[in-house]
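Q: Structure for this?
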Amino acid sequence: MIAHLDIDAFFAAVEMHRRPELRGRPVVVGGDPRGRGVVATASYAARRFGIRSAMSCAEALRRCPAAVFVPPDMARYREWSARVWDVVRAMAPAVEVVGLDEGYLELPPGDPAAAARAVRDAVACEVRLSCSLGVATCKVAAKIASDADKPGGVTVVPPGGEAAFLAPLPLRALPGVGPRTDARLAAAGIATIGDLAGLADGDLGRLLPGRVGEELRRRARGLDDRPVRSEPAERVSISTERTFDRDVSDPARLRALGGEMAARVAEALRRRGRFARTVTVKLRYADFRTVTRAETIRVPTDDAAAIARTAARLLCRALAERPGALRLLGVSVSGLVPERQLALF
DNA sequence: TCTGGGGTCCTTCGACAA
DNA sequence: TCTGTTGTCGAAGGACCC
């Protein structure tokens, strides 16, 4: 059996450990409510005002003027997260960490519900953080189950009961169904996971063509054979981007900012001992339209100046095609190869 | 006066090679 | 030589996730 573990309101919970006077108050971890930030995590008290992750902080402030806004401290959250996963690893044969605050674990033989409760209690006791777990035969059911009884609950889906457990839930609860897919299916009268599971081949091909649709319907039926993978996957890309407080239109200033981002990306490459073949710049205009421009270079590089030159060229090209002020600029590299493969090029 | 940052994966399209 | 097919790569965009 597999369990999905999700730490409850993780960033906000860590902040409350640091500042106990915040306990019970509406706490929002995220950007500046007077700027362009969004909510990363809202405490349960803040959620009562309708504040949710990904909402703009300005909107959150409007909903709850008494909310306490705290800027995120990722280094601290990484430390707390590591402590949680150390505890979990000591109790499970395989653990796959998916983000700082969630992951899958294989449960040891025996009573799965008891094992899941033991993990929850150990995390509460040793790290003093609350988490919720879902237990099932597969990842998709376990993940959805972990959300069924928050905070602090353990929900078990009995083997064979996966499809029945999923069927009545809103489509949006299925991982992989975002706002677009939800809207498209809703327009065709598909409202629940069970509706998607029961879709005939023809309708599925029309509504969600391609492998994505096939896979989503399989998951909706509770069919998911992805294993719990303990070893972390190789990085595919490294990026950095910044939304400006005020839109920037001066091309020279944008080039300079791109150069700084290239340096950050190059440093991350060197830290990981990787070289990149493709450089991509991302531009978001004042109207939120986003374009990317990419170029693959002959010799893979980890050199800041080389990445900056390519990024500047791409930036000029994009601005020539569509001049205008930018609210965001980003630089990313992909096509990563390890040092020893460099000789191949 | 909205709408972050760091990612992954998929799809589509055009170019090109076999 | 011409045409069509298939596969691969790079570029661009889109959807999604935490």
